[in-house]
Write a structure and sequence with these properties.
The chain has 318 residues and is α/β, with parallel strands linked by helices. It is built from 11 helices and 12 strands. Helix 5 runs antiparallel to helix 6.
């Protein structure tokens, strides 16, 4: 059985009146000063968690525990010789292992790591506290999303986002619910392909391009819009109207190459703080800079072609 030797300051009746009431013996516990051989074992009761260790371990580093067990501070003991420390003992084993080895595996849980940090600070173990703080900062960075894609809920929000960023912008307007029951057989697949491409590019160009998604905008179903210096440069409409014998259907397409082309074009605006008119003219789709017409159906295109032919025949007749 291990022996325990304590250098004890006894409080005599004649001297007790001169001491503050907080230092008087209460409830069978008494205060003592620890100062012994480094190989001497001591018994610790940390909030009900019991530990055996040596004075050499407790005084190995310049911490509050060294002050407690090198005679500079008083410690509280009970009638069985257990040294009482009023802290949660959940992480005290980790504290002891750090004092022994100079390093220790940190908890995976953010909550437990924060608890260990609080204990390290209480015992003034600066190296362990610093390790915990650095690990918590790394976990915070890991928890942050790789990219953020705002969802547009109003035209005002869209205008503020586009006008207040220095990055080029890609906006996908997607209304899957619109004309749901008049889609062609491949339209659902193409609609999902547009969404998947948007998600992939938002990850690939994260930090370089602002990607925004409009899910409640106009009556259009699927449309890509590209902006540079806050101005609309290009638009890729992915739907049109086709006519069957019984009724008209909505056709959704997936012009992947065109979308990639326009995305690469707006990357030219990435590091330009001042609008470049020549660049905007070179990278803008026809009519897009000036606002351009919205997406058109096959019927509207047919009407325009017919009008153009009528005008041409009239001019030839005259």
């Amino acid at each position: 059985m291990l022996s325990l030797t304590l250098d004890t300051i006894n409080i005599s009746p004649s001297s007790s009146s001169a001491l503050p009431s907080s230092e008087l013996v209460m409830s069978g516990d008494h205060k003592t000063v620890m100062k012994g051989n480094p190989s001497q074992y001591v018994k610790l009761n940390i909030g009900g968690s019991l530990h055996y260790t040596t004075i050499g371990t407790l005084t190995k580093h310049d911490t509050m525990l060294r002050a407690m067990f090198s005679g500079r501070m008083e410690v509280l003991t009970d009638s069985e010789g257990w040294i009482l420390i009023d802290r949660c003992g959940k992480h005290f084993g980790t504290i002891l292992n750090f004092l022994r080895d100079g390093s220790v595996p940190l908890p995976e849980s953010v909550k437990e790591m924060a608890e260990l940090l609080a204990e390290a600070k209480y015992y003034c173990i600066s190296e362990l506290a610093e390790s915990c703080e650095q690990a918590l900062q790394r976990k915070e960075r890991e928890a942050e999303p790789i990219c953020r894609v705002p969802l547009i809920t109003s035209q005002r929000e869209e205008h503020l986002l586009i006008s207040n960023t220095t990055k080029p912008v890609v906006k996908l307007l997607i209304n899957r619910h619109n004309n749901k029951y008049s889609y062609t057989s491949t339209s659902d697949d193409n609609l999902l392909k547009n969404i998947e491409l948007f998600d992939k590019m938002s990850l690939r160009f994260s930090g370089r391009v602002l990607f925004i998604k409009d899910v409640i905008g106009s009556s259009e179903i699927c449309c890509w819009t590209f902006y540079g210096h806050g101005r609309k440069l290009a638009e890729v409409c992915c739907h049109s109207i086709v006519y069957a014998t019984d009724k008209k259907h909505t056709k959704v397409e997936f012009p992947e190459a065109r979308i990639y082309e326009e995305t690469l074009n707006i990357l030219l605006y990435e590091h330009r703080n001042v609008p470049d008119q020549e660049l905007m003219q070179a990278t803008s789709s026809r009519g897009a800079v000036g606002g351009g017409p919205p997406c058109t159906s096959d019927e509207e295109e047919g009407e325009r072609s017919g009008l153009a032919r009528l005008r041409s025949n009239k001019q030839n007749t005259n």
